[in-house]
Design a protein that fits this description.
heterodimer, A: alpha+beta, Aldehyde Oxidoreductase, domain 4, 29% helix, globular, B: alpha+beta, Uridine Diphospho-n-acetylenolpyruvylglucosamine Reductase, domain 2, Enolase-like, domain 1, 3 domains, 5-stranded antiparallel sheet
Chain lengths: 782, 265
């Protein structure tokens, strides 16, 4: 692997600038004449806009203009869209209501933008925003997705009667029902998956620059996928055609899914820049982030799992209601459908599965993908159900899982997915050994003597990453293809630039992508630069989400490297008068195998550009591009074990140990992989123990709008993690990688809740397992 | 934040004069609540009069068991005072768990008690230690000082200059933090005098702010041990219910924190 190649524990190149405050984020960008935008937002969760009077605001110091939704509509700016079409089981298309970037008739959640102030300073813009008089006619409010489906509830969009967006199903209902009817045992559970706020460290921001000389727009923004932003803003929002719009996502401080989507603010900044003739910058404050960043999860499900007399699962039936909030965000429709129900087979051989999913509008912020996106919801549901079933059947949790593991590959599940490789028992065994599962009984007894309740729980997760084969997702309703592109440019002195459509917002691509190149050509990673996040520099790309950068983005790089390698070998063979099939590349040299003849890498590169002595007919230069479209998803999987102690007097849970045994296939940089797992575990533990978005059900006010009320995990909430990996290489991409970005957040919540419910002897517990809930459940059990 | 005028007086007298001349002035004693509130545009003082640079408001003096803490003394300075640790380690421990290191280096004891946040830690210590709040014009017993949620006996323009108390024989503070804010969801300060008198003060839980629990005080005066409060019931009817904890759960926590404080004292 070499000291910097694939598999090396290389320190992250980008950390120098991040740790010394030299990162350049959207809010750091400053251009001459730049002014500041502040949005006027609805204080009501549901209301008609009777009038907007900006007369006083426009007269205030420093104010350049105040713009509203009627002007936006008049200028032809389009509605925000959902990019994945889902059809209900009756064949009808999803019922999408209009989402205006600035609401012009109705506001539907607290924080809905109704106008924008552009002023010389942020403070002057804020002062003026407070002076904009919006006359609202408040309407009744519904925030609960189950209630929203009932008759007689407030209606959000005329297109969606009873607030239902679609009623979708996957799997064989008849076979599932028949298996349940014939079962020896049926476990029934109600599962709630709590609503989360993404909380990226860097809040969203946008800088819109309109150049009237060229009739050209530039948008700096906090995006996980700048090319997709450009495409959507061009094709659907009529901001500008693609050739007149450059989107730059510079350093981005965390996304977790919430920065995939194109939000109203970046569209409005671009439009406002043209309207006002000045560059317009907006930076979200933390309260706005709580109010308007797309939230995650928020499912209500009922589950039936059927077993035969040998404790083999015969069927799984799931009914889910998913809250999508006030509007359909960009990928909101695919999260509770194709990213969720397709994973309901988990690691288990289940002959019949049926899932029914209803999605619902409510007077809350839009809900979309958040780290894991659908897969955490599937895993939590399945692994809580497995734990419940093991308790009901009197089996150890490991035993029930062993009985039901899939053991031969490829494996076709009844819910679309075809698993390519895996060894689930290996992860289970590794995790149980690392956790000293067998020693638990003694530890529980010792804790009992101290008056503490000790519990242990496991979770065996699988996820689908490497999104995704374009034709497959196209047939399921996706509006885009999910390939990736790369370009490798070898400079005349041999240094290398890689242009990738993947986007790094904390993942460490500048290091891992460089390791891939270093591994191939034996050059130091310092001579390799990774260029991403700018539609003018990078040819095209679909961005980073769903743990796809390694499996798809790096595979595209590998494909481009193949082409560079082939041409480099041809040049070297020509220079050394050897056969190109005898050329090997080692330690920065191109050698003729079995001889002492060699050409340094830089000399070959120089020869490519001087073009004084190239093979006949060869084009000068050394730059190659590739598009890579995956042939399948990848399937990372693993086993997580959590051990807790609950203080029965207070309900406080302490995590004693947390073990993660993952199979991510081949690994480029183990240190970065461990970091991704640690971060994912922190978020999953946050969901299970601490985090939860709460709206007032009467008036739709967000009750958790600051860190005073929204509990984020902190270092002292977390144990020192025990992580390990095993490896069944992915057979479907050139690198054998699977993806590791979301696993921690997917696998950890059920392990933790299974451990707490084991400790307190009461299975009825919902996330977040706050001290009061745990205390109440522990006492209800006694 | 709205525009405001910042003043940095060097004496209490000057500070009082400045506040008297301001339209809607506010003393800035550390700003750990006030600045955050101003940033949210929920407070808009015309003038800020910064008390943190007045020498006479700073410092800790211990004479025998008699303690005086200047109002502008930071939580960090209280937490790390060796003199204070020697006579009343409980108040050092309390200060060492307020907020985070940044807050402890900015926030002051005077600011905290003048703000009287119902979930703040210091008010419980003041009540249980039977402290005296010294101002530029008078001395106020802690029992008379805390009058309601964010309400105190301070008059307009009055400045806390110090707090004084006699160190108890035994004392300890235990809090159960709110998982989000880490403010007390129930915090209990217990103090026992040489004469056997016991005070139990509770913060974070009362619907009208900090309060003493006479039932537990009586039980502990009779038997200074965690077991003594086992049969005491805490009435939940005057306790807070919010997103994070019900009154009934807070009642339970008060008892548990009291037991633990007695055990730790």
């Amino acid at each position: 692997m070499g000291v910097e190649g694939i598999g090396a524990r290389v320190a992250r190149k980008e950390d120098k600038r991040f740790l010394t405050g030299k990162g350049r984020y959207t809010d750091d960008m400053s251009v001459p004449g730049m002014k500041y935008a502040v949005f006027v937002r609805s204080p009501h969760a549901h209301a008609k806009i009777k009038s907007i009077d900006a007369t006083a605001a426009k007269a205030m110091p420093g104010v350049i203009d105040v713009l509203d939704g009627k002007q936006l509509t008049a200028d032809g700016i389009g509605n925000l869209i959902c990019g994945w079409m889902i059809h209900s089981k009756d064949g009808s298309p999803m019922r999408m209501g209009a989402w205006r970037p600035l609401a012009d008739e109705t506001v539907r959640y607290v924080g809905d933008a109704v106008a924008v102030v552009v002023a010389d300073s942020v403070n002057e813009a804020r002062d003026a925003a407070e002076a904009v008089i919006v006359d609202y006619d408040p309407l009744p409010v519904v925030t609960d997705p189950v209630k929203a489906l009932a008759d007689g509830q407030p209606q959000l969009h005329p297109e969606a009667p009873n607030n239902m967006i679609f009623d979708w199903e996957l799997g064989d209902a008849a076979a599932t029902d028949a298996a349940i009817a014939a079962a020896a045992h049926v476990t029934e559970v109600k599962i709630l998956n709590n609503r989360l706020s993404p909380n990226a460290m860097e809040p969203r921001a946008a800088l819109g620059i309109y150049d009237s000389g060229d009739d050209h727009y530039t948008c700096y923004t906090t995006s996980q996928n700048p090319h997709l932003a450009r495409l959507v803003m061009s094709a659907f929002y009529n901001v500008a055609p693609e050739n007149k719009l450059r989107v730059i996502a510079p350093d981005v401080g965390g996304g977790f899914g919430s920065k995939i989507y194109i939000y109203p603010e970046e569209i409005v900044c671009l439009w406002a820049s043209k309207r006002t003739g000045v560059p317009v910058k907006w930076t979200c404050d933390r309260t706005e982030a709580f109010l308007t960043d797309a939230h995650g999860r928020d499912h209500v499900s009922t589950v039936k799992m059927a077993f035969d007399s040998a404790n083999k699962i015969t069927a799984l039936k799931v009914d889910t209601i998913a809250n999508l909030g006030a509007y359909m965000s960009l990928f909101s429709s695919c999260v509770p459908t194709y990213l969720y129900a397709t994973l309901l087979s988990g690691q288990y051989d289940i002959p019949a599965i049926h899932a029914n999913v209803r999605t619902v509008y409510t007077n809350t912020a839009p809900v979309d993908a958040y780290r894991g996106a659908g897969r955490p919801e599937a895993t939590y549901l399945l692994e809580r159900t497995m734990e419940t079933a093991a308790r009901e059947l009197g089996l150890s949790p490991a035993e029930l899982r062993r009985i039901n593991f899939i053991r031969s590959f490829p494996h076709q599940t009844p819910v679309i997915m075809n698993y390519d490789a895996g060894d689930y028992e290996a992860s289970l065994n590794a995790a149980m050994a690392a956790a000293d599962w067998d020693g638990f009984a003694a530890r529980k007894e010792e804790a009992e003597r101290r008056g503490m309740k000790r519990g242990i729980g496991m979770s065996c997760y699988i996820e689908a990453c490497g999104l995704a084969p374009s034709s497959a997702v196209g047939s399921l309703g996706a509006g885009v293809g999910l390939w990736e592109s790369a370009e490798v440019r070898v400079n005349a002195v041999g240094t290398i630039e890689v242009m990738t459509g993947s986007h790094s917002h904390g993942q460490g691509h500048e290091t891992t992508f460089a390791q891939l190149v270093a591994d191939r050509f034996g050059v130091p990673i310092d001579s390799v630069n990774i260029v991403h996040g700018d539609t003018d520099k990078v040819q095209m790309g679909m961005g980073t989400y769903g743990s796809r950068s390694g499996a798809v983005g790096m595979s595209a790089v590998a494909k481009a490297l193949d082409k560079v390698e082939a041409k480099a070998k041809k040049i070297a063979a020509h220079l050394m008068e050897a056969d190109e099939s005898d050329i090997v590349i080692e330690n920065g040299e191109l050698k003729v195998a079995g001889t002492d003849k060699s050409v340094p890498w830089f000399q070959m590169a120089l020869a490519a550009y001087t073009a004084h002595n190239l093979p006949a007919g060869m084009e000068p230069g050394l730059k190659e591009g590739a598009f890579y479209d995956p042939s399948n998803f990848t399937f990372p999987a693993g086993c997580y074990i959590c051990e807790v102690e609950v203080d029965p007097d207070t309900g406080q849970t302490e995590i004693i140990q947390f073990v993660a045994a993952d199979d991510f296939g081949n690994i480029i940089n183990p240190m970065i992989v461990e970091g991704q797992v640690h971060g994912g575990l922190a978020q999953g533990i946050g969901q299970a123990l601490l985090e939860g978005v709460h709206y007032d059900p009467e008036n739709g006010q967000l009750l958790t709008a600051s860190y005073m009320d929204y509990a984020m995990p902190r270092a002292d909430d977390l144990p020192s993690f025990k992580v390990s990996t095993s490896n069944t290489p992915c057979p479907n991409n050139p690198l054998g990688v699977k993806g590791c970005g979301e696993a921690g957040a997917i696998g950890s919540p059920p392990a933790l809740i299974n451990a707490i419910t084991d400790a307190i002897g009461n299975n009825a517990l919902t996330m977040p397992a706050t001290p009061e809930k745990v205390w109440a459940a522990a006492h209800a059990a006694n | 934040m709205y525009q405001t005028n910042y003043h940095r007086p060097s004496s209490v007298q000057e500070a009082v004069k400045l506040i008297g001349g301001a339209a809607e002035g506010k003393y800035l004693a550390g700003g750990m609540t006030l600045i955050a509130t101003m940033k949210q545009r929920l407070a808009a003082p015309s003038d800020l009069v910064d008390l943190r640079h007045i020498a006479e408001l700073k410092g800790i003096t211990v004479n025998g068991r008699s303690v005086r803490i200047g109002a502008a003394t930071t939580h960090h300075d209280v937490a790390s005072s060796a003199e204070l640790e020697a006579v009343c380690p409980a108040i050092c421990a309390l200060a060492s768990h307020i907020g985070d290191p940044h807050v402890r280096h900015m926030g002051t004891i005077g600011g905290s008690i003048a703000n009287n946040d119902p979930a703040a830690d210091y008010p419980a210590a003041m009540l249980a230690l039977d402290a005296t709040i010294v101002t530029n014009s008078r001395q106020i017993a802690a029992a008379d000082f805390f009058t309601g949620l964010f309400e105190t006996a301070l008059d307009d323009g009055e400045i806390i200059t110090a707090i004084t108390f006699d160190a108890p024989a035994k004392a300890a503070y235990q809090k159960f933090p709110n998982p989000a804010s880490r403010y007390a969801m129930a915090g209990v300060f217990v103090a026992r005098r040489d004469n056997g008198e016991v005070r139990v003060a509770v913060t974070g839980a009362g619907s009208n702010g900090v309060f003493r629990h006479q039932g537990m005080e009586a039980a502990l005066a009779g038997n200074w041990s965690p077991d003594a409060v086992g049969n005491i019931s805490v009435d939940a009817s005057d306790l807070l219910t919010d997103l994070h904890a019900s009154a009934a759960y807070r009642a339970k926590l008060i008892k548990v924190m009291t037991k633990r404080a007695v055990a730790a004292a």
